[in-house]
Amino acid sequence: MNNDSSFRIVAALRDWIAQAVPGARLPSTRALVAEYAASPVTVQKALRTLTAQGLIETRPGSGAFVRAVRTARPLDYSWQTAALRSPHRHIPSWASAMRTAPQGVIALHTGYPDRELLPERLIRSALARSARSEAALTRSPVAGLPELQAWFANELGAETPVGVTLPLASDVIVLPGSQSGLSTIFRALVTAGQPMLMESPTYWGAIVAAAQTGVEVVPIATGPDGPDPDELARAFQETGSRVFYAQPNYANPTGTQWSAALRSQVLDVVRAHGAFLVEDDWAHDFGISTTSHPVAAQDDAGHVVYIRSLTKSVSPSIRIAALIARGPARERILADRGAESMYVSGVLQAAALDVVTQPGWQTHLRNLRQQLGARRDLLLTSLREHAPDAHIANVPAGGLNLWARLPHGTNLDRLVADCEAAGVLIAAGTDWFPAEPTGPFIRLNYAGPNPGAFADGARIIGRALASNT
User: Is residue 148 part of a domain?
Assistant: First the structure.
């Protein structure tokens, strides 16, 4: 399929549509094939792009038509302003990474791995067995199935060095995905109106959770090597905060992995200030050239609250994660979880446990490591060749994303719009900053669908950047 031909047809038809009346019928596919000397597949791709952009609509058996602008009485929602009252603060909307990609576009924006990177056979078998088990008919304990709690505790225990007390199954709380866990932790350990330190840039979902719970975020700059321990200590001292949210392994969006020295230094700072480190190990299963090394493995005094998700690595439909905490903090978190959702589906817990305890799970992870490495390198090579102005400061050793800095003065909104018009979805870096962005960035996912289109996508990004500055 020739993407350049498709884009040429889209551009020509956009001009034609601009001059046409609403409801006008577009030339037939056969006529477009002849006019542009293109294949029917290329023409259909161009029509799908125009449909996704809302410019045309198709009617089965009749053809494609210029979309009519339907007018109606203006909808007035002003009454809701008084009913809802003024919010304490603005709560960000869901990030662009959650957008569903129309068919035919090159999707570099998403935050999830492609279906072909999931252990599909293991998932389907596990769900079938789980549906026939007692878990399908009984209520799960509030903290989770004991067998699944033990699996999470044993996994972290395997990383725990000699001299540090191993985590127990009773330290584990099973969650319906890590996002709800973040909201719970922020409510239970920080509370509304209190300060919390947070890496910047960082996971957009943590920023949203902080806003929803009324937490006052204090950004801590992080770079290719992670945060500066001295800056972290200064922020604890100046703000009085007792919680620091961070992603020490394959951070979203930067891909940064902390060194062993930095893990120890940050933990020392946290201990010195009688504080908590909320460690988000979202990409535990996505190592490429290294493996995840949780800070939590070095702590047995309850300073680290550890979150480990299976949602992205097992299946987005099996939203299972775990939180490991010790002491009164765990009890406070568990009380919040019980009030929030009572318990997590036993069927999903049993299915997740089934998947990760099958011999095929480790085989899948080894294959996944190779596939992610090949995809990362392919996208990186494509960008360096076709979009050299998208500078990658850090080649991640794991995770799903590349974090690219763009030239000073780049208009991000225009760049995203131009790329989308040409058939590529990218995510503006703005969503990942809890305060003002420090420059123009984009996040590109190399684990999404159709890696064969990475070169075309990079070429489009390069053209859009060249016309942006």
Answer: yes
Same domain, 456 and 371: yes
pLDDT along the chain (469 residues), means of 10: 74 87 88 89 86 81 77 55 53 62 80 93 94 86 91 94 92 91 93 93 94 92 93 95 97 96 97 96 97 96 95 92 93 82 85 95 97 97 95 94 94 94 93 90 95 95 91
Residue range(s) defining the domain that contains residue 459:
95-112+362-468
Please tell me whether residues 166 and 302 are part of one structural domain: yes
Same domain, 405 and 433: yes
Domain shared by 381 and 294, yes or no:
no
Query: 297, 324, 357: which is the final residue of a domain?
Result: 357
Number of domains observed in the structure of the chain: 3
434 and 337 housed in the same domain: no
Q: Which residues of 247-272 are buried (b: 16+ CB within 10 A; e: fewer)?
A: bbbbbbbbbbbbeeebbebbbebbee
Q: Are residues 125 and 250 in the same domain?
A: yes
Q: Are residues 432 and 290 in the same domain?
A: no
